[in-house]
Specification:
Nuclear Transport Factor 2, Chain: A
Length: 132
């Protein structure tokens, strides 16, 4: 079995002495990298201060303004750092209606996307536990 990269968070692989658990599928690596892009705060990554969406920064912002700002930030960061992703759709609280979004204090982000080169259509769901 060939690996693409280490699985994050790093964990020792009990089957191989001294190595970490590995990602073996491209779709898993892309999803891991997308999650990293969403959760990394701008300025957190050395030598690349513009990298990251920083979803945690939006947690205590007024919901009516933060939804639009989050969607724009996600779309611009994916275009810049993961340009192979197509058909990007960003949904909050599983696509609930606007009134619920405005009054809710629970947030989940569902990113629906396609990777044409891999003939892949999938999604990444981040719950409040992932973001906070």
């Amino acid at each position: 079995m060939s690996s693409i990269g280490p699985r994050v968070p790093l964990q020792r692989d009990p089957d191989t002495y001294g190595f970490y658990l590995a990602v073996t599928q491209y779709k898993d690596e892309i999803q891991q990298n997308l999650k990293n892009l969403l959760l990394t705060s701008p300025g957190e990554r050395m030598m690349n201060p513009n990298f990251g969406v920083g979803l945690r920064h939006f947690l205590f912002e007024p919901r009516i303004h933060s939804i639009t700002a989050m969607r724009q930030k996600i779309e611009s960061q994916v275009r810049r750092y993961m340009p192979f992703i197509r058909g990007l759709k960003v949904q909050f609280n599983a696509g609930s209606d606007q009134e619920y979004l405005d009054n809710s204090n629970i947030l989940s982000v569902n990113i629906i996307y396609e990777i044409p080169n891999l003939n892949l259509s999938t999604n990444l769901l981040l719950q409040k536990e992932d973001i906070s």
